[in-house]
Each structure stands twice: as structure tokens, then as C-alpha cells.
Amino acid sequence: MANDFEGPMIRVEDLVTHYGERRILNHVNLDFHTGETMVILGGSGTGKSTLLRHIMRLENPTSGRILIKNEDICPMSDERFNQFRRKIGMLFQSAALFNSMTIEENVALPLRELTQLEDSTIRIMTRIKLDLVGLNGFENYMPAQLSGGMKKRAGLARALAMDPEILLFDEPSAGLDPITAAGIDSLILKLKSAFRMTIIVVTHEMASAFLIADRITVMDRGEVIATGTPEEIRDSKHPRVVQFMNRIPEGDEQDAQDYLRSLTQN
Predict the structure, then answer these.
(1) Number of structural domains, the chain?
(2) pLDDT digit string, tens, across residues 96-150
(3) CATH number reported for the structural domain that contains residue 62 in this entry
(4) Are residues 139 and 255 located together in one domain of the fold?
(5) Which one, of 110, 114, 214, lies nearest residue 156 by Cα?
(6) Of 51, 103, 208, 261, which has the fewest CB atoms closer than 10 Å, so is most exposed?
(7) CA distance 119 to 154
(8) Which residue(s) pair with 202 in the sheet?
(9) Is residue 76 located within the same domain as residue 1?
């Protein structure tokens, strides 16, 4: 997976997913460009995290395609997809650290499982990633000894272990206080400027989204209802986007329509 690829790094085509009788993703079409930070916004239960899990192939769709560098990963053999997975890092909402391992052991795990590198090389690479996320000196700590924000940073260091081309974040600010959450945003911006990775961030935190995004996609009820630059999303006249952006409660769609009318009259 070389970085000189032309075209969308990831293309989602007509993706449909059901959990039982319930449709979670409803004909989703979306491109993620090489080197961009795309933020996926939406309320709880709109399919944002499900979409990420499909890109990681942790779940399979009912129908549709997910192309990474023009290769459909859905019908791939596990052996073939594992080559792609090595260049995809993911920070899970819970950080997903192994509590029985030190922070260094957690970060080193992908390198030990997926490479033939010497232990000394793995240790150096692990220390570099921990330093990158601001955890230098915490190598021998256990996850239980870390704060929530530090766990997220450790999970991010592990996601970076294999030098991914694609980096996925599932609600990186969940459970964090505003100052700690701002630190995670700053770290994402740091990675964005230092590496030409395609970054996808699922969140419902609008302040974070407008700070870090090159483009924003808004999802509602399993569908993509708007995609554009932060300015385009902020100026969107789609009633559901207006409702979300202005925190208008469910069931008060008339308020959203009234808000739109007030904009056109000013």
C-alpha cells in the first residue's frame, strides 16, 4: 500500500447493513481522499461507528462495496485483507488496551504479531510511538494506572505502531473532560501535519469536528445527508443538519424549519 496512489483512498459504494430486521446503513456512498481528515458527525445510532467497523472489516455489509485503493475488501480472503489491515490503525472508543500488559507491551503487540523484527528494534519503535503521543516515561505502567486521556493516547500509540496509511478514530473524546479532549484534538492535528495519512474521525462533538476536519460528513438514520467543507456544513440548509447543528431536540423539526426561514429573511 504505497502512498503514491491516485484517487480516493477509500470508496464506499451503495453500502447497506442490517442488524436483524433493522436497517443500520441505508445505501451509503462516500469517498475518503488520500491525506485528508474526514469527520463523520451525527447523533447516537446513526451508523457512524458501524461504518468504521466495516472499513476495518470487523463487520460485513448486507450489500454494497468498500474499496481501498480500488480493491473491494468485502469479498477478500482473510489472508489478503490482512495485508491491508496492517496499514489501517484504529483507536477504539474504549482504547481497548489489554489490562494484563504494560503500556509498552500493548503498543508493541502489533509489531510482535505481524513482523519479524528484533526485540531491540521493536522496543525502539514502541518508544518512538509513545513519545509521539506524549507518553514517554510511562512504558512500564499498567492501563489501570493511567487516566482516561492517557489510555486514549496509549491506544493511539498502538494504532500507529505499524505506520498506517489510514487512521480511524471512534469517538476519541468520549468520556473525557473538555481539556483532555482538546489535547486529543491537538494530537490529531499534529499527526495530520506530520504524516500524509487518511484520517477518519467519528464523533458527535461539533467543536472538535470543525477544528480538525478537512471535510465533514453528517449521517442521520443510516444515511449520508451532507458532505462538505466545515464552512459548507455550517451553512447547510438541510433541515436535519440544521437540527443537529443547533441542538434542536428530536420531534421539534418545525423549530428547524422556522430557523431556516429566519436565515433567509435576514
Answers:
(1) 3
(2) 899 999 999 999 999 999 889 999 999 999 999 999 999 999 999 999 999 999 9
(3) 3.40.50.300
(4) no
(5) 110
(6) 261
(7) 20
(8) 40, 170
(9) yes
